[in-house]
Specification:
The structure is a homodimer. Chain A has about 220 residues and is an alpha+beta fold. Chain A has a domain of about 110 residues: Glutathione S-transferase Yfyf (Class Pi), Chain A, domain 2 (Up-down Bundle), CATH 1.20.1050. Chain A is built from 8 helices and 4 strands. A 4-stranded mixed β-sheet of chain A has the order 2-1-3-4, covered by helices on one side. In chain A, helix 1 packs across helix 6 and helix 4 packs parallel to helix 6. Chain A is globular. The termini of chain A are far apart. The interface between A and B is medium-sized, with 24 and 24 residues. Chains A, B: Homodimer. Chains A, B: GO terms for molecular function: glutathione transferase activity.
Chain lengths: ~220, ~220
């Protein structure tokens, strides 16, 4: 049986769960408190991060490397378009959400208010939380700009870029940190992706000590 | 003419310069003080980072997305092996050096002592410098481990993973921050990659206010 070592509120784990779900690759989910850096876990991934995918007896890590691997090993349905320019745009946007959005928004809002509590790291830094709350608006504005001329974020087909973005936003949505009402186009896009079968297990996630927002699992939020 | 907006001591710019050089794609290099975030530069790349490649009238950004694009658009010589497992390993290691090595080592050593000075950001944080000096040894140890069973970092052929690693290390080597002598296998690997024609322009880099280490451009260092 394939296995995914993950953490429910890890956006990178969610990105891989969405890719696996879309490709109908079944995995056993194993929750990993990766910040405790157990020796067994470090053997599976010396980088000490989730997700780690065990597939065909091997371990795979880094969410982008895993998704590129899955797309080459199991090509249908594709996570990338066929043309080189379109593939570039998907990768550019994956990096945008994995790096820039995560650093400017998710790491600040989730990092300060959820992971600090989970790890016992002290009180949230209010300046960081404030910066995250400010910067999410810039990102939602950028997504609105993209969605003005495209059905999905990287073009007219759903791709890995949509999963990378939805992975970040769904974690923030769990703790009710997304001001959807001011960004109708992004809300519509999220409602579309939220209704994919691949999203179901994510909407069922529960983290002790953090109750999900009332609308979190609601498809007509 | 193709053009690369870059900064000499940006490892991500160097990674793309190495990929371009290996593929013999000529570009005009335009130095960009990207942290000043001019409006023209943000139009080329809303993420506000270097490198940005202008090619065939379009702009491309994010070093990994650019290199993947170059490899698809100009397949020879390849930056990745042909097999899926091998391609995964290259991408895993690119993420290792671009994310983990950069965050734990380059951002601490270069960020504190070079970029803070360039940007006028105050005195170096000595705890960060100390952590970077400690963690580079762990990374050089990991590279030694990889090179025990491989000729290059990701396997027996030179790939983008080698460029990602050499891009980080060559920046640190400019300011003499690499304890080569204790890591012979890594030193031998670096001497091999340093002698590639693609490396020449990198060895000629000069940053005002920071003189390169004496051995920096020496192929028999």
């Amino acid at each position: 049986m394939n296995r995914l070592y993950h953490y429910p509120l890890s956006p990178f784990s969610r990105k891989v769960r969405l890719a696996l779900g879309e490709k109908r690759i079944e995995v056993e989910l194993v929750e990993e408190r990766y910040w405790e850096q157990g020796i067994e876990f470090l053997r599976r991934n010396p980088a000490g991060q989730v997700p780690v995918l065990r597939m065909n007896g091997r371990h795979y890590c880094d969410s982008q490397a895993i998704c590129e691997y899955l797309d080459e090993a199991v090509p249908t349905p594709p996570l990338f378009p066929r043309d080189t320019e379109g593939r570039y745009e998907v990768r550019r946007l994956c990096a945008w959400f994995d790096d820039k959005f995560h650093r400017e928004v998710t790491a600040k809002l989730m990092g300060e208010r959820v992971f600090k509590k989970l790890r016992g790291g002290g009180v949230p830094d209010s300046a960081a939380v404030k910066a995250g709350s400010r910067d999410i608006k810039t990102h939602l504005g950028y997504m609105t700009f993209l969605l003005e001329s495209r059905r999905w974020l990287a073009g007219n087909d759903m791709t890995l870029a949509d999963f990378a973005a939805a992975a970040q936003l769904s974690c923030l949505d769990y703790v009710s940190d997304v001001p959807w009402d001011k960004y109708e186009a992004v809300k519509d896009w999220y409602a579309k992706i939220k209704s994919r079968p691949a999203f179901r297990s994510i909407l069922a996630d529960q983290v002790p000590g953090f109750r999900p927002a009332v609308h979190y699992a609601d498809l007509d939020f």
